[in-house]
Amino acid sequence: MGNLEQLEELDIYSNHLEDFDVLKSCPNIKRLNISYNEYSRLNGIEQCPDLEFLSMKGTKITDISVLENLHNFNTIYLDNDFDRSQIDFMIGNFKNGDEKTKQYLLDKQYNLND
């Protein structure tokens, strides 16, 4: 793909991709859509330390702990059956996401289920 150092948004939706090699040439990505690809892990996404937004619906990813180290990360779109207890680190820094994620984080932040 060449050197895409200035690229801040990348939409690789539904391309049958399995790895994040494409991110090596674009370290300044802030918005990334990897939905409906063959991804099963987020290994390699740490190459984008400024990442703020991730859409990962329709992937096989079950562990998103690597996102905890991305200090600007604030927006995520997940499948309905995803284990949202993994996004507790976003409480207080959440900006946007799918409806189920929004509800989960609001409930956690304001103790609405107690």
Describe the 3D structure:
The chain is mainly beta and 114 residues long. It has a single domain, classed as Ribonuclease Inhibitor (Leucine-rich repeat, LRR (right-handed beta-alpha superhelix)), CATH 3.80.10.10. It contains one helix and five strands. The model has no long low-confidence stretch (mean pLDDT 92).
Topology:
Blueprint: E1 9-11, E2 31-33, E3 53-55, E4 75-77, E5 96-97, H1 99-109
Parallel strand pairs: 1-2, 2-3, 3-4, 4-5
Q: What are the main properties of this structure?
A:
Leucine-rich repeat, LRR (right-handed beta-alpha superhelix); 114 residues; five-stranded parallel β-sheet
Number of beta strands = 5
Helix/strand structural class: mainly beta
CATH topology: Leucine-rich repeat, LRR (right-handed beta-alpha superhelix)
pLDDT < 50 stretches: none
Rough outline: globular
Specify the number of helices. 1
Instruction: Provide the gyration radius in Å.
Output: 14 Å
| CATH homologous superfamily classification | Ribonuclease Inhibitor
CATH class: Alpha Beta
**Strand percent estimate:** 5-15%
Helical percentage: under 10%
The CATH architecture is Alpha-Beta Horseshoe
Q: How is the biggest beta sheet arranged? A: 5 strands, parallel
Q: Span between N and C termini?
A: 50 Å
Strand order in the largest sheet: 1-2-3-4-5
Question: How many structural domains in the coordinates?
Answer: 1
What would the average pLDDT be, to the nearest integer? 92
Secondary-structure element series: EEEEEH
